[in-house]
Specification:
This protein is of the alpha+beta class. Helices cover 18% and strands 23% of the residues. It contains 5 helices and 7 strands, in the order H-E-H-H-E-E-H-E-H-E-E-E. The relative contact order is 0.17.
Length: 192
């Protein structure tokens, strides 16, 4: 099923922020988002700017817990990348979320302490360096943000698959390709 971008104004959480942020000069649209040229995403422009060294830790959260984590971003100083896990019952409303807390090392002690207070423990989670050349635009934005903590939602739900044939390898990104089976590519740390 395709992700329906016409519903973005009615969703409880939006990566793009409030609808008012996207309305200018009195122009409002029901099914599209008017974007000023200064707001267009420029990967190559971003890639040439100064990058902070960032690290990431992943956690899987149940229910609405991810919203509590989002509410702590400004206070604890971290970015968040999250995506839903496709429910096994076939519904389109995730009840489980894959989350990646992305931070500068100097903020880690406060992040660990603050998230532990709301029941999210990242202490034993593996720490990966976000690769400076990561192709994901969200990571490029996070490495360069100086005055904001970015919340990025990947709208494509992920599914959990069993590796019954032993084809999966640690440290690899695997993409499902119908009859062809699994294809592997070497990931950047941020993509694991």
């Amino acid at each position: 099923q395709k992700y329906d971008m016409t519903r973005w104004r009615t969703l409880p959480i939006r990566t793009g922020g409030p609808a008012a942020s996207w309305e200018f000069d009195g122009l409002q649209a029901e099914t599209s988002v008017p974007v000023h040229p200064r707001d267009m995403q420029d990967y190559y422009g971003l890639a040439s700017m100064y990058r902070r060294e960032l690290f990431a830790r992943a956690v899987c959260l149940q229910g609405e817990k991810y919203q509590e984590v989002i509410s702590k971003q400004d206070e604890l100083k971290f970015h968040l990348y999250y995506t839903g896990v496709a429910p096994e019952d076939g519904s389109d409303v995730p009840r489980e979320w894959l989350c990646m807390v992305i931070y500068e090392k100097m903020h880690l002690p406060g992040i660990l302490r603050g998230l532990r207070q709301i029941g999210v423990d990242l202490e034993d989670a593996d720490e990966d360096r976000v690769e400076p050349d990561a192709e994901e635009l969200a990571f490029q934005m996070m490495m360069r943000a100086t005055d904001a903590w970015i919340t990025f939602n990947d709208p494509w739900m992920k599914s959990v698959e069993d590796d019954l044939e032993g084809k999966l390898e640690a440290g690899q990104v695997h993409r499902y390709q119908s009859e062809l089976g699994l294809a592997s590519t070497t990931p950047s740390s941020a993509q694991r």
